[in-house]
Predict the structure of ABC-2 family transporter protein.
Amino acid sequence: MDQRDASVPTISRIGPFRAWVTTFGALIGSGFRRYSTYRQATIAGTFTNIVFGFLRCYVLLAVAAEAVGQRPAGYGAEQLATYVWVGQGLLSVIGIWGWTELADRIRSGDIAADLLRPIGPVTGYLAADLGRALYAMLTRFAPPLLAGALFFPLHTPQRWQTVPLFALSVLLAVIICFGCRYVVNASAYWLQDARGPIMLWTLGSGVLGGLYFPLRLLPAEFVVVLWAATPLPSLLQTPLDVIAERDGPALQAGLVAVQVGWAVLILALAALVQRRAERRLVVQGG
């Protein structure tokens, strides 16, 4: 059958790049539609994020109130409130927790079907995750931010480049987080049961990603090493610092540039791990 007449777009010699883009876009759409069916979970999750937003915001504002005449870690009270409420909105967009689909499919053997598809598992799952993030951005980002704006004074961006840098930073954070989760899930190729690595990821990504408190409250030397040596601060700390305008324009752009480097590195690592895993399956006769 001529591939131009096929109902499912595939990569072919007739416009391979166009076919790849079409397939990638279709997978993003499928991810969006898949998560849009969980309406009750969306409402419940949004409500939970708002409740925890109040708790976190009051704690950080108490810290700011104790530092009379000072800016703890360089944040003003409005910037801390913005940090909390934007972070609560981004929590579901970036999707730090809850994804075990790859590990489950490896454990059940269903991963074999993924390997037979015309698009690789890393690319396919990335596209679906971008669709999930797009749905979360449309449904779960605004409510916590509006709730915070109703009860707390929030910081309004003062520089024109802040909003586009923030949008780019969020996209890069989604990609980096996906790559990290993919590598953690892929440990099931060797361990069969990835619950241990996933639990470590759940704990480490929240604490060292900037979810519970701004990492700038920690000693500066430790934060610099953490930012340069791990992708974790690029998950939440970077986009939140960008939108709160905690740093100057040059450092804002530098932090996003660090995210670009980590996004490339993590996706390359995910692809390498997947190739090694496929070789292991072939050797085992799978």
Notes: The first helix runs from residue 16 to 36.
